[in-house]
Amino acid sequence: MSVRLGFIGAGGIAGLHFTNFQQIPAAQVVAVFDVDLDASERAATRFPGCRVYPSASALIGDAPIDALYVCVPPYAHEDFESRASERGVALFVEKPIGLELGAARRAASVVESSGILNAAGYHWRYSPLVERARESLAGQTIAMAEGVWLGGLPGSRWWRTLRLSGGQVVEQTTHMVDLLRYFLGEVEEVYASGSSGLYPEVEGYDITDASSATLRFQSGAVGTILSSDLVPGYDVYAKLFARDRTVEIRSSSLKIVEASHVEEFAWRPQPSMHFVEDVAFIRAVETGDRSLIRSTVPDGLRTLEVSLAINRSIGSHDLVRLPLE
User: Fold this and answer.
1) Which residues contact 125 (CB under 8 A, 6 or more apart)?
2) What is the structure's pLDDT at 169?
3) Burial state string for 185-218 with b = 16 or more CB within 10 A and e = fewer than 16
4) How high does pLDDT run on average in the chain?
5) What is the pLDDT of residues 238-273, one digit of tens each?
6) Is residue 49 over pLDDT 90?
7) Stretch 193-221: mean pLDDT, rounded?
8) Residue range 140-163: average pLDDT?
9) Which of 11, 19, 160, 235 has its CA 20 to 30 A from that of 244?
10) If DSSP codes are grouped into helix, strand and coil, which group holds residue 128?
11) What does the pLDDT look like over 82-112, one tens digit per residue?
12) 46 φ, ψ to 5°?
């Protein structure tokens, strides 16, 4: 069967999904809305028969879709998830699932209670290297973890403003927050600090340039999350430490270090993690097999809460306990 897809948001990350769906025979993009009409029209030209809708409400209410992708910036979330839940279509929400915690909690609650098939866009969970790492650590107690996201300053103007993006932790490093949760479970305490002031010439820039967060997990494990947008190039990874075993996960490599043995795995992500994620979602919609989904909207809410707790601790200089009030 074909899975008919609607998109709210046609720029940025949506473009990756569009490219994937041009290579997935079962996926049929039939409806798109973006506040930028040109972006909507460019997207529609990629898919024969795709219609541009005048509003998100019109698309959710009228488009002949089986599933809805929500691919908007953090600040632009409205009640898309609730409306999709009311209609009963499957739902994919790109990370982060929102920016305001109360609204995100309400959306996740409606999605969960509706029973619709749903996913959050934490694509690292779909990497075969992550699965191999989980196999390696099965039965092991992870005592410590490190998540790192280092890169440069993205070009989107909204990304540079805290009230629009949530800053680097919420908009980018959230992937490493999620990955540590995937291995270690839930976080109970966060303490974080940040530095700023090295982009004085960038208009509207009010986020931290660099931050360090210490996490304590309910399991008793501890972790650190490091972020910076000052770094030329791109360096993103997670390290997990068990007794006599260290596991380092990167986008295209995995290293498992033991006292007398080192295993290394390389993966040239073709297809990409995003592609594997999209194939899994389409297949889940086709078959109803929810085991194919590795991150749901309610689970994405828990990652958002930890990400926001890091920001709260940076701002208050205090220890923050979860769940947030």
Assistant:
1) 178, 179, 182, 277, 294, 295
2) 98
3) eebebbbbebeeeeeeeeeebebbbbbbbbbbbe
4) 96
5) 999 999 999 999 999 999 999 889 999 998 767 899
6) yes
7) 97
8) 96
9) 235
10) helix
11) 999 999 999 999 999 999 999 999 999 999 9
12) -80, -15
pTM greater than the 0.85 cutoff: yes
Round to the nearest angstrom and report the end-to-end CA distance of the chain. Answer: 44
Is a pLDDT exceeding 70 seen at residue 131?
A: yes
Mean pLDDT of 303-308: 98
What are the structural domains, with CATH classification, of the chain? 3-122+274-293 (3.40.50.720), 124-271+304-321 (3.30.360.10)
Per-residue exposure over 88-111, b if at least 16 CB sit within 10 Å of its own CB, e if not: ebbbbbbbbbbbebebbbebbbbb
Concatenated DSSP letters of 246-282: EEEE-SSEEEEEETTEEEEEE---SS-HHHHHHHHHH
* 230: number of Cβ within 10 Å: 14
Helix (H, G, I), strand (E, B) or coil at 28: strand
Q: Strands of 3-8's sheet, edge to edge?
A: 51-52, 27-33, 3-8, 67-70, 90-94, 118-121
C-alpha 14/C-alpha 70 separation (Å) is 9
- The order of strands in the sheet holding 235-242 is 261-266, 253-258, 245-249, 235-242, 142-150, 222-228, 210-217, 187-195, 320-321
Give strand pairing partners of 261: 258
Would you give the DSSP letter of residue 125? Answer: G
In angstroms, rounded to a whole number, what is the distance separating the alpha carbons of residues 206 and 167? 8
Within 10 A of 306 (CB to CB), how many other CB atoms are there? 23
Distance separating alpha carbons of residues 177 and 223, to the nearest angstrom: 10
- Residues 48-68 have a mean pLDDT of 97
Structure tokens at 55: 């509003």
CB-based contacts of 208, cutoff 8 Å, min separation 6:
167, 168, 169, 194, 195, 196, 227, 314
Q: Compute the C-alpha angle 307/68/8, nearest 5°.
A: 75
**Cβ(225)–Cβ(176) below 8 Å:** yes
